UniProtKB/TrEMBL annotation:
Annotated source species: Salinispirillum sp. LH 10-3-1
GO biological process: tRNA nucleoside ribose methylation
GO CC, alphabetical: cytosol
EC number(s) recorded for this UniProt protein: 2.1.1.200
Uppermost EC category: transferase
Protein name, as recorded: tRNA (cytidine/uridine-2'-O-)-methyltransferase TrmJ
Subcellular location: Cytoplasm
Annotated Gene3D superfamilies: 1.10.8.590, 3.40.1280.10
Amino acid sequence: MLSLAHLSRIRMVMVETSLSANIGSAARAMKTMGMSNLVVVNPHENPLSEQAIARASGAQDILERVVQVPTLEEALQGCELVIGTSARDRALPWPMLTPREIPQQIATVGAEGDIAIVFGRERSGLTNEELARCHYHVHIPANPDYSSLNIASAMQIIAYEVRLAMLQGEESGRAGNEEPQLRARAEDLEGFFQHLQAMLVDIEFADPNNLKQLMIKLRRFHMRAQPEPVELNILRGIVSQTQKTIGRLKDV
């Protein structure tokens, strides 16, 4: 059942934010909706700068607890569900949500799983490679003639929809539309993708100098499937055995 307790398992992730003031505004948006876990990836300015504290307007406690990491991979450690924000269509379609549909996916996460909602750079957003780490993309259906939202505004909209659904869940006592499931964690998926890529090169299925599009398509396939840890272990076992067999054949 969705409840406000889920808020403690959601981390808002900001990638390479240019202005610390935007981090402060994001902290304020989070605190108004009862969220407290903010992770910043390689920020250009100190999240505790005077500008950030001023924009936080009473949410300095969130800034003081902010987690800084150098890479998105580290920011997603331990997450079973990763949702990336995208303001534009991508060449390769990905499962897409509106902010109002996010809580339905949160309801499917197991009792121990964390959730990450990832926000990109002010000017360019998230790269295709970063979005490929996400199970879903979320798009705010703003005015198509002027759809520019700053990060804090986008975060406020998403946080509001999540909080509203959780309040309704507590009031109604109803479970979500989906039963909770145990997903493979982000770091385990990344290990599998690196393992799979190495095998594809070993068996000469893929050109090591031209892997980008193939791996993005394979990522999309596996992220859409949302494998459980046991299923991911089976896939890694298949990859390992394939590599061993190819190695024996080469030695003959």
